[in-house]
Amino acid sequence: MTLGEKQTIIEKEVLLPKQSRKEKARDLQLLQENLELILKHQDMILASPELFHSGPVDAVIGLIYMGGHRAPIGVLLRLWQQDLLMALCPHCAGRLYIFSAGGSPLSGINRATGICASCKQFVRTGLPSIGMVLKALKELKASLNRQRILRTRGQYFSFKDGLAGEPVPDVILEPGITPVSFEELLCRLKQHDTEKQ
Ligand SMILES: [Zn+2]
Question: What domain of life does the native source organism fall in (predicted)?
Answer without folding.
Answer: Bacteria
